[in-house]
């Protein structure tokens, strides 16, 4: 992810200007028909014995598998990652311990790699393909409230676009999207049509761990959690570490769901002063639920296990 540092300071307006100059905006790539990557986009069924790969757009079997599943969890990796990368390897084994979930991972390694500007545009096309796929799954009988997408970085915005597409095609909303430090470069201060937004699922919760750098700073969910203030994480010294810490927190929350209570507050400064206006607590991670939307803050430890329990909520 380090290759996008020059983009961070550019801001989204300059990002769009640069993409326009190189012919890489969403509209330009539609016109040039340069987004025919259906064969390159796979979805894996994650099992204890390894991943079983299916093509997202051509495999009818995977549609049947998901249509008949109970709660479906789809993991979506970020830039220069894969369905067999660090994020999926960190989160999937914990989810597999739960008998109520069937776990999948979208694999866009051949698409969102190497060149960030192009990859940030591909996010919208990938999200639309995933949303079309899920729309068919829902039409085949799957309850949309049982579909749960967990995305990291660019994967968070893919999840958001997929949620929009599902709503367009079915008139229904996905059950939940958890966004793990949604990518910031080229996505801050832009229209919600091309990024994650709180309207993309019945419940959208966000963990910000490198806000303002590799991650988006503004709140985009029903509940936005800012551990350690949201910009830098204790024990990290580079942004890549901060950015990845969001999925590490989430992975820990699956086996220890009460580890991350967070306090609703207006900002990190007031949280540090124990001056939050509302005495409300919500859990960050898998245990997060609807009710009392807003900003939530907490402190964590510098190494695993990261959760501090009630001591972290001030």
UniProtKB/TrEMBL annotation:
Name the SUPFAM superfamilies for this protein.
alpha/beta-Hydrolases (SSF53474)
Give the record's GO CC terms. Answer: extracellular space
Task: Provide a GO biological process annotation.
Answer: lipid catabolic process
Report which superkingdom the organism of origin falls in: Eukaryota
Chief location: secreted
Gene Ontology MF terms in the entry: lipase activity; serine hydrolase activity
- Where in the numbering of this chain does the Lipase domain appear? 68-306
Q: Does the keyword Secreted apply?
A: yes
Going by the UniProt record, its keywords in alphabetical order are: Secreted
Fetch the CDD domains from UniProt.
Pancreat_lipase_like (cd00707)
Subcellular location(s): the record lists: Secreted
Write down the Gene3D superfamilies for this protein, in alphabetical order: alpha/beta hydrolase
In the record, the note on similarity to other proteins reads: Belongs to the AB hydrolase superfamily. Lipase family.
Protein name as annotated = Lipase domain-containing protein
Its lineage opens with: Eukaryota, Metazoa, Ecdysozoa, Arthropoda, Hexapoda
């Amino acid at each position: 992810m380090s290759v996008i540092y020059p983009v961070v300071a550019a801001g989204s307006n300059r990002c769009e200007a640069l993409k326009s100059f190189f012919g890489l905006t969403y509209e330009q790539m539609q016109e040039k028909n340069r987004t025919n990557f259906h064969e390159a986009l796979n979805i894996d069924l994650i099992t204890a014995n390894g991943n079983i790969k299916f093509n997202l757009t051509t495999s009818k079997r995977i549609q049947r598998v998901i249509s008949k599943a109970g709660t479906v969890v789809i993991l979506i990796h970020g830039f220069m990652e894969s369905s067999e990368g660090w994020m999926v390897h960190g989160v999937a084994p914990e989810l597999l311990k739960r008998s109520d979930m069937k776990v999948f991972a979208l694999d866009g390694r051949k698409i969102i790699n190497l060149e960030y500007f192009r990859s940030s545009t591909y996010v919208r096309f990938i999200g639309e393909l995933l949303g079309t796929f899920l729309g068919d799954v829902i039409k085949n009988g799957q309850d949309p409230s049982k579909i749960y997408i967990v995305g990291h970085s660019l994967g968070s915005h893919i999840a958001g676009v997929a949620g929009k597409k599902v709503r367009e095609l079915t008139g229904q909303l996905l059950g939940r999207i958890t966004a793990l430090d949604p990518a910031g470069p080229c996505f801050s201060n832009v229209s919600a049509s091309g990024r994650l937004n709180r309207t993309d699922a019945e419940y959208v919760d966000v963990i910000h761990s490198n806000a303002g750098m590799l991650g988006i700073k503004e709140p985009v969910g029903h509940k936005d959690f800012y551990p350690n203030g949201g910009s830098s994480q204790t024990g990290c010294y580079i942004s890549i570490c901060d950015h990845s810490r969001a999925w590490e927190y989430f992975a820990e929350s699956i086996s220890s769901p009460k580890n991350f209570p967070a306090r609703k507050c207006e900002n990190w400064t007031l949280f540090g002063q124990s001056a939050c206006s509302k005495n409300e607590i919500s859990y960050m991670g898998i245990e997060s639920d609807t009710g009392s939307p807003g900003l939530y803050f907490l402190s964590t430890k510098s190494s695993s296990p990261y959760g501090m329990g009630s001591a972290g909520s001030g």
